[in-house]
Design brief:
- The complex is a heterodimer.
- By secondary structure, chain A is mostly helical.
- Chain A has 13 helices and two strands, in the order αββαααααααααααα.
- Chain A has a two-stranded antiparallel ribbon with strand order 1-2.
- In chain A, helix 3 (61-95) runs parallel beside helix 7 (153-177) and helix 3 packs across helix 9 (194-222).
- The longest helix of chain A is centred in the N-terminal third of the chain and has 35 residues, at 3-37.
- Chain B is an all-alpha fold.
- Chain B has a domain at 68-251: Orthogonal Bundle (MetI-like fold), CATH 1.10.3720.10.
- In chain B, a hairpin with a 2-residue loop joins strand 1 (58-59) and strand 2 (62-63).
- Chain B is globular, with a radius of gyration of 24 Å.
- The chains are: A mainly alpha, B mainly alpha.
Chain lengths: 289, 286
């Protein structure tokens, strides 16, 4: 075998697992989902090709309201995560001393690896009617009776921000970490105010990290299931819940597939618009974080 | 210092903000963990005294976590699934790293983006699309030829495939980053000294990649162990731990045994996360 043959063989051998993975687990399932979404059930076990499932979606305000609600709340969560997380990331990367920097970053990383489920469970214990905050407030005498802090939109948003904020902070810290402090000092020396330096130097530099964080956070939020259900209750109207209901409760896989497809298109569109507006690419942002 | 011109009050406020953030970060974890030691039937105040019953007691009503059959079975299934997923995804991830770092082929950049895509597809969608495909194939075979393929029905195999489908992206990225740092001259030196290609791979390249492969394996294990969204749709009768715990949480009146389990999981995942950081930090020349 010549050198060229060996390289060719190794290319094929390395390409095979990649192709199998992408084709069998990503491409084919999504094509299948699209095909099933375009099937209408006309009688038991009889199907016709058509857009019926999507028409049902458009005609039922509950469905598209839920999707819009999920989308807008996810955008709100993303914005909040960025606003709350950016100062923390900046502190860790630029202000904290050399030794405390690593420790702070680790403290940030560890909760990231603790399951969403446990974190939501913790919030339930703190916020419910018989929870820690309610009983503490009663013990101090600030309130007379127990208060229920679960099952409202504010709690769901706070819970979601909590669940995803570390996925914002981690890429931000890694981008800010690579920034030369001299750039910031130069900005100040040239007479820039703190705000100008932030707006003209730090934020443009951190853009890949910001975009990466926002994409991951938005995607995780829009696709989340646990947090809205556990903190928002059964009727939190989150779109993933609607999909689950079609699949498992109603056993209407055609509608479920159509709804899944809509969620995918919706999140992809938002991610794509975000990339376009910020002039970034997927490879330069998400792949690096 | 960078902020010498900023006033002292601003920095103090900033520090307080960071402190408040870390309290916010820790509060639910502390709440979930602490009630594991409360001698009460409910995970709520008032504090009734310290106990280890929720770990070790062997009878109802205070059934401890080490005697709770259903939770233990969940842990077992989660372990099996996570071990399979992390082995598979590290193997394919390493292969992908070599593919993208060492080879040139048509549409390489597009395919690289395709490799990253599974990370930006919502987990719920991955779950349902794989469920739909597997069920369609299984139904077609069953109706047409009377062949019933059990592993295409919801169960451990599908859960492993579902998690593998996006965890492989993570492992590929981790190993690729490490392979990019590798100095090809080392391999060439070994080849010039007469080593075979297989031997160079086994004694030079793979040892260099080992920290990244171990770290990727740990991360894959953790992500798999804690996955909920993708698993939810693919799970059969063998419920992994997250599904078992969720079912109990959704029902009201769970006992602090869930807190005991949470406490163990926080310790376990915190420890593993620490380990993955240390493994990677160790021999990486910066």
């Amino acid at each position: 075998m010549t050198q060229k043959d060996i390289r060719r063989l190794s290319l094929i051998l390395l390409f095979a697992p990649f192709a199998l993975w992408i084709v069998l687990l990503i491409v084919l399932p999504h094509i299948g989902m699209g095909v099933i979404a375009l099937r209408e059930k006309v009688a038991p076990r009889v199907y016709e090709f058509g857009f019926g499932n999507f028409i049902d979606f458009a005609q039922e305000p509950i469905y598209w309201n839920t999707l819009l609600r999920t989308g807008s709340m996810s955008l709100l969560v993303t914005a909040l995560a960025l606003v709350i997380g950016f100062p923390i990331a900046y502190y860790i990367a630029k202000i904290a001393g050399r030794r405390s920097r690593g420790a702070l970053f680790l403290i940030c990383l560890i909760p990231l690896w603790v399951s969403d489920l446990i974190r939501a469970f913790g919030w339930i214990l703190l916020l419910r009617e018989t929870g820690v905050i309610s009983s503490t407030l009663q013990a101090i005498g600030l309130i007379d009776g127990p208060v229920e802090m679960l099952y409202n939109d504010v709690t769901v948003v706070v819970g979601l921000v909590y669940t995803v904020i570390l996925f914002m902070i981690v890429p931000l810290v890694s981008t800010l970490d690579g920034m030369d402090n001299a750039m910031i000092e130069a900005g100040y020396n040239l007479g820039g105010s703190g705000l100008t330096v932030l707006r003209r130097i730090i934020i443009p530099y951190a853009m890949p990290g910001i975009v990466a964080g926002c994409i991951i956070v938005f995607m995780l939020t829009a696709g989340s299931y646990l947090t809205p259900i556990l903190l928002g209750g059964k009727y939190s109207s989150w779109f993933t819940e609607t999909i689950y209901e079609q699949f498992i409760t109603r056993y209407n896989w055609e509608a479920g597939a159509a709804f899944g497809f809509l969620l995918l298109i919706f999140t992809s569109a938002v991610v794509w618009i975000g990339l376009r507006l910020s002039g970034q690419t997927l490879a330069a942002t998400v792949a690096k974080s | 210092m960078l902020n010498s011109d900023k006033n002292w009050g601003f920095l103090l406020g900033y520090r307080l903000y960071v402190l408040a953030f870390f309290v916010f970060l820790a509060a639910p974890l502390v709440a979930a963990g602490t009630f594991a030691f409360n001698d009460s039937l409910f995970p709520a105040l008032p504090w009734q005294g310290f106990t280890l019953d929720w770990f070790f007691n062997d009878s109802e009503p205070k059934l401890g976590v080490f005697h709770d059959r259903r939770l233990l079975r969940g842990v077992y299934y989660s372990f099996v699934i996570a071990a399979l997923v992390s082995t598979l995804s590290v193997a394919v991830g390493t292969s992908n790293a070599f593919l993208f770092v060492r080879h040139d082929f048509p549409a390489k950049n597009v395919l690289y983006i395709v490799m990253v895509l599974p990370l930006v597809i919502p987990g719920v969608i991955l779950g349902i699309s794989i469920l739909l495909l597997a069920s369609s194939v299984a139904n077609t075979l069953d109706d047409g030829y009377g062949i019933d393929i059990g592993f295409l029905r919801p169960g451990i195999f599908l859960v492993v495939m579902g998690q593998f489908s996006f965890i492989t992206t993570i492992t590929s990225l981790v190993v690729t980053a490490r392979l990019r740092k590798f100095d090809r001259a080392l391999e060439e030196a070994a080849l010039n000294l007469g080593a075979s290609r297989a031997r160079v791979l086994a004694t030079v390249t793979l040892p260099f990649l080992r920290p990244a492969m171990i770290a990727a394996g740990i991360v894959a294990f953790l992500v798999s162990f804690e996955n909920f969204n993708t698993t939810l749709f693919l799970v059969g009768s063998e419920s992994p731990l997250t599904i078992t715990m969720f079912d109990r949480m959704a029902k009201a009146g769970s006992t602090p045994v869930l807190n005991a389990m949470s406490f163990l999981l926080i310790l376990g995942s915190g420890g593993l996360a620490l380990l993955s950081v240390l493994v990677q930090r160790d021999r990486t020349p910066e």
